[in-house]
Write a sequence for this structure.
């Protein structure tokens, strides 16, 4: 099939949706499809066999786009739509594959060019807006519009590809007869790079960790990720394990000051390292130096992408016992704790004091992710999904 893949994202960037788009593009090309990929003008060079990368019109005064809904993103979406419209006008496509709001563009384009549409649902846009706590976008008119657009896109798609079971259920609630394929994320960092041990020791030295047990968080510092919950649980963990050090990796420059202020208020500076963003190539080392990895997420329904890399690392995981985690995790591969400072602290402290449980959970997690969330498993699920489109 010749597929127009519309991904309104900076591309390529080593984060979230752009990483998922790169995995999707590679898998589709390896399955024998020809792909024209349309993205924002922003991003690093990227190439893949059988994938032609088309950037939307260059806007010189826009050099970056923050995660989540913004006026800048909506502005750039206009140029992605124009680029996609031009490609469809000049060439025949068997299918449009729209990622997030790219599927909304796809509904309009489908009506013009009579081509099948796959909605790649990485998240629920109304839920994403609610979780952002934005004083602008969380107003009732915007939320209502987002809900209407999501329903409209689902109903006019020929198939929806959902990234987690909760999103699949949301689709079926809106359109019970809609074909839905479940296509979870996979680990996006290398499991054991050659430099792993050297990087791990370098980071230990750089952060003055010594032989202290470490609890590591990686990811964004957005409100829904539960950073406040994690910080609030640290004093209780320190009372149980005085020399423990929490390492938080991620967050934008404008978020670090607020996090550091909270650390100072709680009096946990000695037991905390707030690092900001680090290169993705270092993530395997951060996961390897950890005794416990944490995902304190408190809002949202889709599964954090980092969770799959956590499992792959073989380091024991503590996560909140909420749908965002439990649709992938279970008690045999992770410690699932209440989403309260007391509950989360108990989960972390218990693991720090139980080496055998950490080893058991880590081994089970590696086996679990290799069986269910490997690249091979992803490609097979994608093949089955596209077989349904071909039959229509």
């Amino acid at each position: 099939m010749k597929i127009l893949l519309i991904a309104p994202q900076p591309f390529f960037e080593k984060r979230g949706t752009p990483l998922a788009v790169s995995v999707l593009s590679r898998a589709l090309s390896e399955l024998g499809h020809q792909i024209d990929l349309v993205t924002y003008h922003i991003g690093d060079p990227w190439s893949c066999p059988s994938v032609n990368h088309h950037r939307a019109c260059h806007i010189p005064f826009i050099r970056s786009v923050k995660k989540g809904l913004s006026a800048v993103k909506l502005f750039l979406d206009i140029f992605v739509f124009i680029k996609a419209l031009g490609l469809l006008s000049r060439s025949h496509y068997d299918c449009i594959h729209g990622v997030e709001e790219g599927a909304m563009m796809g509904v309009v384009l489908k009506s013009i060019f009579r081509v099948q549409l796959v909605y790649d649902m990485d998240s629920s846009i109304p839920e994403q807006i609610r979780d952002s706590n934005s004083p602008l976008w969380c107003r009732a008119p915007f939320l209502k519009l987002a809900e209407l657009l999501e329903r409209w896109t689902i109903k006019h798609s020929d198939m929806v590809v959902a990234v987690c079971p909760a999103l699949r259920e949301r689709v079926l609630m809106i359109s019970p007869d809609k074909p839905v394929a479940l296509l979870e994320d996979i680990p996006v960092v290398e499991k054991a790079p050659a430099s792993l041990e050297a990087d791990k020791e370098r980071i230990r030295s750089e952060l003055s960790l010594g032989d202290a047990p470490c609890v590591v968080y990686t990811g964004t510092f957005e409100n829904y990720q539960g950073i406040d919950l994690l910080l609030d649980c640290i004093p209780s963990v320190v009372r149980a394990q005085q020399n423990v050090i929490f390492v938080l990796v991620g967050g934008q420059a404008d978020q670090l000051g607020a996090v550091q202020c909270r650390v100072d208020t709680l009096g946990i500076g000695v037991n905390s390292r707030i690092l900001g963003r680090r290169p993705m190539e270092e993530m395997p080392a951060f996961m390897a130096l950890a005794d416990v990895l944490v995902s304190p997420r408190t809002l949202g329904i889709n599964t954090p992408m980092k969770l799959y890399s956590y499992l792959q690392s073989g380091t024991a995981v503590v996560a909140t016992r909420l749908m965002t985690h439990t649709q992938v995790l279970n008690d045999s591969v992770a410690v699932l704790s209440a989403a309260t400072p007391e509950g989360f602290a108990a989960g972390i402290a218990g693991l720090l004091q139980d080496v055998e449980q950490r080893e058991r959970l880590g081994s089970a997690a590696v086996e679990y992710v290799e069986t269910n969330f490997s690249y091979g498993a992803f490609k097979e699920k994608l093949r089955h999904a596209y077989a349904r489109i071909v039959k229509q």
